[in-house]
Amino acid sequence: MRIVIPEVMDTAAVEWLKARYDVNYEPTLVEQRQKMLDAMADADAIIVKNMTRVDEALLAAARKLRIVGRLGVGLDNIDLEACKKRDVAVCPATGANARSVAEYVICTALMLMRPGLYTSSAEVAAGGWPHKQLRSGREIDGKTFGIVAMGATGQAVARIAGCLGMRLVGYDPVRSPDDTAFRDLGVTPVNLTDLLMESDIVTLHVPLLKETRGLIGRTQIGTMKKGAVLINASRGGVVDDAALLEALRDGRLGGAAVDVYEQEPLPAGTIYENRPANLLLTPHVAGATIESTERRGTLVAQRVAAYLEQCR
To answer: How far is CA 40 from the centre of its chain?
Structure first.
């Protein structure tokens, strides 16, 4: 059986697969669309990250395809309906990067609550002394932390935030208020409006679906506490970028961090280009650590192999 891997994957996981299958591992293949489509002609499986589009064209080229492994949890680059019609299984690395994203969220929240503090090194080294300007930071102890979606990542965030003395509130439309995800982690279930109104820090962990596109728009941002901070490590398109920038510039929000975008990498000339100082931008790396890369690779490799063995 043949597996195509057109993006970067953990080396140990690739070698494990190579010992069992015919593996075409080309980390830059995703950048050569036609070559990738040609390589899919005899593929039983493909393992992808964020950049590969598993769409009608790829599925049509992959007549033998049985399973798509996803080195992550977001599935917006995979046409799930088309896969279902062709009886192609989709296997995400659910939970494998939850801890990495949670640590990113907590670290970023701490930075945003003390704006400018961790970006003043060059000024201090050059003889500047922004002591007065950097004395207006806030502690997170006793603040309210709002978690939108209580899946594996939201729960990992709650575990850490709860240890820091924060009050936790959570919104998840697919979980009942007595769900263990709330009860066992000390998270008070609330609706989205109340979460936004009460929280000093809001973090988003929803997939990009028709129902979640524009979930945090101008109206929702307008209900947030003055000075609150917003962290989006879920998917681009969940937040109205223009409304977010407007709220940062006029002082309604104290800060924000964005790790995900509708188009990645960002093209030149986006509205983010002249960003305000209280906005942190990172290149979709919240879940990217050495440990999570290994976990994702191992998990997806084993799940894809187990599925292929069933198909023999």
So the answer is: 27
